[in-house]
Amino acid sequence: MTVDPQRGVLVVGHICVDLQPSFSAAPSMVPGDLFATGPLTISSGGSVANTAGALRVLGIPVTVAADVGDDVLGTVVGPLLSRLGLDTSGIRTVRGTTSYSVVVQPPGVDRTFWHHGGVNTSFDGSAVDLRHGARGLPDAPALLHVGYPSLLPALVGEDGAPLAALLDRARDAGLATSLDLAVVSGPDDASRAHWQRVLDRVLPQVDICSPSRDDLVSAVGRVAPVCDASDDDADGDDPGIELQRWASWLVDRGVAIAVVSGGADGFAVATADAARFASVPMLAGLQQSWHTRSFTAPALPTGDAALATTGAGDAATAGLIAGILSGRTPHEAIALAADTAVRRIRGSLFEHPAPDELRPAAATIDAR
């Protein structure tokens, strides 16, 4: 078996238009105040645009599928995605309003989103064409990536039945599956019980899962069990040990490759055994160093040039997927994920192609 990066990735799920005013200080919310802002940046946002755009920069063929509304903002999405070099033929226009986010990020603090769900709220995955390969390529994609299900309520309705159906279709078609989460807004006991049922239902069908710690805590609370911190590189005194517990929690529920990010605390990786990898053609082509792993990896420093964290998690996911598709070792794939995230934070990811040493190898990699 081999890993073939040239079959590429189909990225589906949440898409929106990001409207980001620039600030020199924290904005005023005093009624009646006039607060001066800088220029407005208008860009494609959400998991579909962010992850697919980063994958393309990394040299992975990619196509997208998502819904936009039949309003003015809906006419903006196509040109914004085309600017990233993405094929927009999988973007479907449906009756309703296009999702958008106002991204509020004053200097030196994390961002806040004022978000409108629009037609994302009715996206259930049933119209996704899994045969829709990257432009110019005859083959179907190797991997389906689904992003931000917490912002796609129809996809996770009925305790995740539509999402499970989409993942089932992908697995039946021979695709590997990948899932990235987003923070659940305003979690309470009822929402956490719902998300526990959703994840219990779909995680056995997920081959690669790359959420943040905040995503998981908001979804199901702090339920990650204590795990043995003696495996591989883990250290019980390391601040990333909670991340490692979450990664193990995901693998215990059926995921093959779990990578949990924690911002400055870095990443934690846990992987399943050889039998789980052998059950998926794409994963079966990976080298044996992926089997039964558990380790942490530091985040890379962003430096003084750090601009914004919006899309950094999606960029890390893209780097991880690119590393897996090109047959890299676990540590190499995580290094690529960390580097891609930092390039996004610094604002340099889309300015020019990644240097050759950061791009996945185009050749197929024999399993070892």
UniProtKB/TrEMBL annotation:
One of its GO terms (molecular function) is kinase activity. Residues 9-341 form the Carbohydrate kinase PfkB domain. Gene3D superfamilies: 3.40.1190.20. Keywords: Kinase, Transferase. One of its GO terms (cellular component) is cytosol. InterPro entries: PfkB_dom, Ribokinase-like. This is Carbohydrate kinase family protein. It comes from the Bacteria. The keyword Transferase applies. Pfam families: PfkB.
